[in-house]
């Protein structure tokens, strides 16, 4: 059965107290809406439709950056969840199959849960995702009769007896498309909030003699984000889950709570991550690597056996081949390091390529920016860059070449050549002793005067 994913994301999110639409606030460096899309992706939807309203243009741009195939439709006024799903009607005109409705601010529904809903749909026209709430608050209440879901009653419209129910509506619903829109046509807004409730289709389905059931999931999966506090809690939930998954896949996290991961972080087996490491978006670390404490990585790739840190910064476009080593206080940006290359101390390598087994000395800088444009530095294999070398790009250092420490390299260095580009040293015999004497007598005179 073909399935369409409809994610409701038009609400303002007043409690976020933000200029940004709520669903674009990030968890693990991806908008919460993208997490919802990822969660729905397990059902391999033939279409993904996002219903946006507040901050429409920003939401559309963000969705399209993540999934160019997704459709973003406008719900101009927010008149309730049934009205929101109705905004997707035109985009589903020529679609046949099931529709799953998710909320953009409820991003953690697990794949296995959605699969259980899909299984329950075989024997039911409508499947709703419910959960046992520790504190049912203002959630809609699920009125069950055995396995049959008879109605969903919104808190504002519920009797005291109904409010005592603790089995609540998550908002996730799975329905065949034609039935869904035909039932939405029957929804009225005569309730406490003057809204078109999607939840009313449950009662309508029962009146039409259709079978409706609820599948239960853990309350943590239905965590809705309405405030910055909820956002921080959601971040914690994501991080803890992602760290556990990594450890289960054979990655060592020496102090898991201090490692921050992104929604797309990939780390291979037998890699060791020391405490206080930050993984921004777009990081891939292969097997058997070692990331030392206090390193900050984003948009980079570390191959098998690589060693990074402590206190290293790998920025977008940093590509480390096997067994490359990056030491403390080193920044790498848009640069490739071939196998076994070493950059161990206090160095900036930007817009560059470094050949295999080359050694970059402490304090080396690729001077890649002339104030207007960026330029490239190319270093061959088995080269040795002396400490405190300034490589003024564009410049090339050949295979097996050397630069003397303290050099300012402005011209290409041929293979196997030694480049010396610094003032020549002059020794003045006895002059240091004389200078010390002069300075000491000056100090003694000043101390006398001060008394
Ligand atoms: C909804 C459910 C309630 C459930 C709860 C779970 C209804 C009527 N009620 O209530 O049973 O327990 O979620 O969190 O469905 N939205 C739009 N357009 C609209 C209205 C809402 O896009 O016109 C979006 C919101 O941005 C949000 C989602 O739909 O992502 C849910 O809306 P919200 O107003 O939070 O519904 P609740 O009152 O929490
Ligand atoms: Mg809500």
- The CATH class of the largest domain, by name, is Alpha Beta
The helical percent reads 10-25%
How many alpha or pi helices?
Answer: 9
Distance between the termini: 97 Å
CATH architectural group of the largest domain: Alpha-Beta Complex
CATH topology of the largest domain: Spore Coat Polysaccharide Biosynthesis Protein SpsA, Chain A
- Taking all Cα atoms into account, the compactness measure Rg is 31 Å
Ligands and ions found:
uridine-diphosphate-N-acetylglucosamine, magnesium ion
Apparent shape: elongated
Overall number of structural domains: 2
Average predicted confidence as pLDDT: 97
User: Which class best fits the helix and strand makeup?
Assistant: alpha/beta
Query: What ranges have pLDDT less than 50 throughout 5 or more consecutive residues?
Result: none
**Strand count, sense and closure of the main sheet?**
19 strands, parallel
Strand residues, percent: 25-35%
What is the CATH H-level superfamily of the largest domain?
Spore Coat Polysaccharide Biosynthesis Protein SpsA, Chain A
Q: Please provide the count of β strands.
A: 33
How would you explain this protein's 3D organization?
The chain is of the alpha/beta class. The protein has two domains: 3-222, Spore Coat Polysaccharide Biosynthesis Protein SpsA, Chain A (Alpha-Beta Complex), CATH 3.90.550; 228-419, 3 Solenoid (UDP N-Acetylglucosamine Acyltransferase, domain 1). It is built from nine helices and 33 strands. Helix 6 (177-186) crosses helix 7. It is elongated.
């Amino acid at each position: 059965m073909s399935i369409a994913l409809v994610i409701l994301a038009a609400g303002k999110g007043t409690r976020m107290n933000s200029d940004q639409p709520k669903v674009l606030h990030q968890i693990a460096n991806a908008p919460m809406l993208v997490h919802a899309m990822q969660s729905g992706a397990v059902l391999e939807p033939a279409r993904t439709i996002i219903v946006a309203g507040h901050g429409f243009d920003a939401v559309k741009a963000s969705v399209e950056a993540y999934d160019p195939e997704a459709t973003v439709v406008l719900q101009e006024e927010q008149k309730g969840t049934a009205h929101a799903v109705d905004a997707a009607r035109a985009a589903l005109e020529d679609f046949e199959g099931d529709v799953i409705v998710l909320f953009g601010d409820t991003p953690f529904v697990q794949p296995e849960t959605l699969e259980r809903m899909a299984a329950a749909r075989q024997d039911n026209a409508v499947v709703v995702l419910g959960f046992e709430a520790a504190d049912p608050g203002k959630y809609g209440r699920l009125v069950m009769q055995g396995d049959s879901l008879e109605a969903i009653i919104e808190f504002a419209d519920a009797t005291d007896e109904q409010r005592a129910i603790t089995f609540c509506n998550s908002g996730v619903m799975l329905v065949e498309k034609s039935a869904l829109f035909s039932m939405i046509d029957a929804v009225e807004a005569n309730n406490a909030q003057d809204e078109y409730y999607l939840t009313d289709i449950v009662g309508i389905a029962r009146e039409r003699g259709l079978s409706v059931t609820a599948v239960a999931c853990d309350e943590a999966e239905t965590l809705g984000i309405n405030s910055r506090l909820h956002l921080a809690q959601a971040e914690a939930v994501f991080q803890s889950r992602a760290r556990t998954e990594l450890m289960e896949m054979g990655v060592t996290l020496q102090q898991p709570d201090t490692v921050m991961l992104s929604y797309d972080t990939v780390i291979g087996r037998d890699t060791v991550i020391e405490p206080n490491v930050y993984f921004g978006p777009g990081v891939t670390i292969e097997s058997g690597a070692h990331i030392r404490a206090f390193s900050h990585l984003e948009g980079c790739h570390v191959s098998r056996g690589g060693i990074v840190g402590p206190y290293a910064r790998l920025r977008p476009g940093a590509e480390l081949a096997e067994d490359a080593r990056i030491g403390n206080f080193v920044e790498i940006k848009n640069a490739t390091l071939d196998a076994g290359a070493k950059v161990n101390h206090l160095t900036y390598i930007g817009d560059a390529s470094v050949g295999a087994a080359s050694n970059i000395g402490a304090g080396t800088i690729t001077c890649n920016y002339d104030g207007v444009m960026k330029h490239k530095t190319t270093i061959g294999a088995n080269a040795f860059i002396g400490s405190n070398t300034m490589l003024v790009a564009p410049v090339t250092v050949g295979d097996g070449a050397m630069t003397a420490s303290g050099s300012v390299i402005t011209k290409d260095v041929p293979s196997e050549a030694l480049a010396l580009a610094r003032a020549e040293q002059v020794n003045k015999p006895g002059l240091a002793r004389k200078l010390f004497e002069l300075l000491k007598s000056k100090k003694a005179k000043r101390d006398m005067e001060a008394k």
